[in-house]
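Weekly modeling sync, notes
Attendees: S.R. (lead), two postdocs, one rotation student

Agenda item 3: backlog of single-chain predictions. S.R. asked that every request posted to the team notebook include the full sequence so nobody has to chase files. The rotation student volunteered to paste the first one in as an example of the format we agreed on. Action items at the bottom.

Example entry:
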Amino acid sequence: MGAFSTTHMIILLIIILLLFGHRLPSMMRSLGRGVTEFKKGLEGGEDEEEPKLKKEKQDKPAEKPAEKSAAEN
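Predicted structure, as returned to the notebook:
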């Protein structure tokens, strides 16, 4: 019950091809489309977040630590 050998992996792949061979092209096509959409979403999300972060930094007035501690006393 050790790790799979190369022979075991080949036999397993042949069984999978026999069972799902007719469906594999459509499954791989949809998987590829999903990965492509996911990558596009990641790229689009980064582009949208950068301007928001820069705008938030510009909108916030910079507080000096000395002013903050004087207000607390």
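Discussion: group reviewed the output briefly. The chain is about 80% helix and 0% strand.
Action items: rotation student to repeat for the remaining queue; S.R. to check formatting next week.
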